[in-house]
Design brief:
about 260 residues; alpha+beta; Rossmann fold; Alpha-Beta Plaits; 2 domains; three-stranded parallel β-sheet; 10 helices; about 40% helix; elongated
Length: about 260
């Protein structure tokens, strides 16, 4: 609906200031879209695919089209494969070419639907890295729809969590994790278990939970800024610290908690 492919049955939306019902042509000029399927012509070469879609988007000048095709294929590291038919491309290469197709007319807004779906880990990372570079270099707003929460966590500056068509939470990935995850947990791994260290921390933080699992300690903290003080306390008690890290819930864990809360309400 935002790309003006489907007409809404109700409500309203504006993209780049243009109403999707009243000015769909102007919206389409400013939007690039990648659907879950790459929707490429596999019997055409990479260059021929982009040339076709550039014409469809109204880039009528041949030299301008050729320059833009060269730019996007260089960006996606596909220029050397420009003469190869798309049917022989890997899934990752097809996805990158589909992204190039969505960008061929220099859109202001890029809509991505499940951009890493069905890709192997290496190809998925390549696509995520490419999207990160796009957000920095192309100067367009990217709206990403995904069920892969690791994509949202690594790529998005803001996230909306939807449940049955309704927005139930909005914010940065960090703020969403903080909202549902409770206080942060400090994980401290010692060279060996030492009861003196445990007692020392409990005296320092009498109101916080301190749990032991062999040489590993989990300490509930209100503020990450207390970490240096806790480490100093351990060292002064004779503990040998191997590692320290703050444990926070992943965005996937946050999502599952929010969905469960919404279903219970």
């Amino acid at each position: 609906m935002l790309a003006c492919v489907l007409s809404p049955t109700g409500g309203s939306a504006r993209v780049c200031g243009f109403d999707v019902n009243e000015e769909p042509a102007k919206v389409r000029q400013r939007v690039g879209m990648l659907t879950e399927n790459s929707s490429l012509y596999e019997r055409l070469t990479a260059f021929e695919n982009l040339d076709f879609f550039a014409k469809a988007y109204g880039v009528s000048n041949k030299s301008e089209r050729t320059l833009r095709i060269r730019q996007v294929l260089d960006f996606f590291e596909l220029w050397d494969r420009r003469g190869d038919k798309v049917g022989c491309f890997s899934k990752g290469m097809k996805q990158k070419l589909a992204l190039a197709r969505a960008l061929i007319h220099k859109p202001t807004v890029l809509l991505l639907d499940e951009p890493t779906a069905g890709l192997d880990p290496k190809s998925a990372k390549e696509v995520r890295d490419t999207i990160t570079r796009l957000s920095r270099n192309e100067g367009c707003t990217i709206l990403l729809c995904t069920h892969h929460l690791e994509d949202a966590e690594s790529l998005c500056s803001n996230a909306v969590i939807m449940n049955k068509g309704k927005s139930i939470a909005y914010g940065t990935p960090e703020s969403l994790r903080t909202k549902t995850g409770g206080p942060p947990i400090l994980e401290i791994v010692l060279k060996k278990k030492d009861s003196r260290v445990t007692e020392s921390i409990r005296r320092l933080l009498p109101n916080e939970a301190v749990m032991e699992d062999g040489p590993k300690m989990l300490v509930s903290i209100d503020d990450e800024s207390t970490t240096p003080e806790i480490v100093r306390c351990i060292v002064q008690a004779g503990g040998l610290v191997l590692s320290v890290r703050v444990l926070k819930p992943s965005l996937e864990e946050t999502y599952l908690r929010l969905i469960k809360q919404a279903d219970e309400e």
